[in-house]
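[Automated response] Your request has been received and processed.

Submitted sequence:
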Amino acid sequence: MLSKEDQRRFDQITRQLRESDPAFFARLDHRVRARRGRYLMLLTILLWASLPAIAVFAGRLTGAICAVVLVANAAIMWRFRRRWT
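Generated structure:
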């Protein structure tokens, strides 16, 4: 953890870099968004794979609710797919 003075200095350096090289920060932001999208995709695949086990062990209703949520998740991911690639 940084001290208040170190945090202030870090923020000042970051602000100067952002102003002097906005393309660099845009690339970093894109990489973070892409990584987040990959994790979300991996989580979705893992949940789809575990859906039969959820339905068996937690009951049909829970499995059906999980399936509906996953279908909605897939629709949202398909709609905003450009943001995560």
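Summary generated for your ticket: The CA atoms of residues 15 and 21 lie 10 Å apart. The longest helix spans residues 22-58.
If you did not submit this request, please reply to this message.
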